[in-house]
Please model this.
Amino acid sequence: VIDLSGADLRNAYLWKLDLKNADLTGTDIKGAYLSEAKLSGADLRGSMLGRADLREANLVGVDLSNAKEWTEDQLIAAHLEGATMPNGHTYEDWLKDKEGRGEDMENSGPS
Model:
C-alpha cells in the first residue's frame, strides 16, 4: 500500500497513474490531472478535490468521506461504483438521493 496521506499533489500530472488501494487521506489534489488514473480502493477521506481532473479515473470502491471542494460534474466524470461519497453514502445511494430530491449535489467546501 502506498502511503501519500497528507501529501501536496496540487497541479500534479498523474495521468494513468496506478494508485490502487493507496492511502491518500487528507491529500491536496487541487488542480491535479488524474484522468484515467487507477485509484480503485484508495482512501481519499478528507482530500481536497478542487479542480482535479477525474475524467475516466477508476475510483471504484474509494472512500471520499468528507472530501472537500468537489463538484457533481467532477465526480460523475469518474467511475465510482461502490465508492463512499463525501456525504458518507454509497455512490449508488447518492445517485438515488440526488434523483429523488432533484437537488444539485455540488459542494464548494472550505477553501
Summary: The chain has a mean pLDDT of 92. Helices lie at 72-76, 91-101. The longest helix spans residues 91-101.
